[in-house]
Structure formats: C-alpha cells, structure tokens
Amino acid sequence: MSDYMPPYGAPSSPPPRVPPRKPRNSYIIDCVYSYTYVWPRFGDEFWFYPISVQYGGVVGYRWTGRKWTFFGFDPDLIDEVACVPVPTLY
C-alpha cells in the first residue's frame, strides 16, 4: 500500500512573497501542482496553483492576496508562466 496522496485542493500555505523572473518560453502544463506565477496577455499578473490543464481550459486556485479561490481560464490568454520550484528536464 502506498502513502502517496494526490495534491488535490488548494494549497495550505500562501505563495512565495517574491515573484519569479519572467521566462522567455514556458508552458502551464509543466506547472501542475506547483506555485505558478502567471503573466496574462491582458491584465495584471497573479499567483496560481493549477490542478488541471486541458485543451481550452486551465483550472486551479488563484491567490487573492489573502486566500486561494477556485479559478479557471483559457490557456490562450497566457503570455508566460513561471513555476516554483522551476521544473527540470530530468
């Protein structure tokens, strides 16, 4: 029997205080179940915790500055994202 528990639901702690640097190329799929800073094509950037990435939709929790709230949006609206910790290729 495994002790693995899938990380469903909102994080139990706030995101990091300092946003990461904006990368040149990034993919939201690499950030599932990670604190993620999102730079949208339009509007203000924000912290996000993605739990599902599918064609036409990203679902997770958005940090309001005080708490995590359930949130979803179209991935075509993303300019760049940065995950904490930064994903590696191996």
What does this structure look like?
- This protein is mainly β and about 90 residues long.
- The chain has a domain at about 30-85: SH3 type barrels.
- Helix content is about 0%, strand content about 40%.
- The protein contains no helices and five strands.
- It has strands at about 35-40, 45-55, 55-65, 70-75, 80-85.
- A five-stranded antiparallel sheet has the order 4-3-2-1-5, with no helix packed on it.
- Strand 2 (about 45-55) and strand 3 (about 55-65) form a beta hairpin.
- About 20% of the residues are buried.
- Residues about 1-5 have low confidence and may be disordered.
- This is Transporter.
**Lateral strand order in the biggest sheet:** 4-3-2-1-5
CATH architecture of the domain at 28-84: Roll
Q: How many strands in all?
A: 5
- Principal-axis shape: globular
Give me the secondary-structure topology.
Elements: E1 35-40, E2 46-54, E3 57-63, E4 68-73, E5 78-84
Q: What's this entry about, in short?
A:
This protein is an all-beta fold and 90 residues long. It contains no helices and five strands.
